[in-house]
Design goal:
It contains three helices and four strands, in the order βαβαββα. With 85 residues, the protein is an alpha+beta fold. Strands 2-1-3-4 form a four-stranded mixed beta sheet. A hairpin with a 2-residue loop joins strand 3 and strand 4.
């Protein structure tokens, strides 16, 4: 199982939706053990600056950007499935 890295902002409406989708998915046995490193970019700008993205939420696995910007539940699930590989 691979760790997901999520860049987000607390006040971002798209991030709030992504976090909600993630919480729902993690209630399922298949996804409950996925590790997610959550980086609030305004609190850790020096870390965020090391990555190539412009919009939040942005998801990475193993340094590969999988998604950037507004997101839907099926897209979050696809990221979770990739973490299981």
């Amino acid at each position: 199982m691979k760790q997901i890295t999520l860049f987000y902002q607390t006040n971002c409406p798209f991030c709030k939706k992504a976090l909600s989708y993630m919480a729902e998915l993690q209630k399922q046995d298949a996804y409950k053990d996925i590790e997610i490193e959550m980086i609030e970019e305004t609190e850790q700008p020096e870390l965020a600056d090391r990555f190539d993205y412009y919009y939040v939420p942005t998801f990475y696995i193993d340094g590969e950007k999988l998604h950037e910007g507004g997101i839907f539940p099926d897209e979050v699930e696809a990221i979770f499935k990739k973490a299981l590989l």
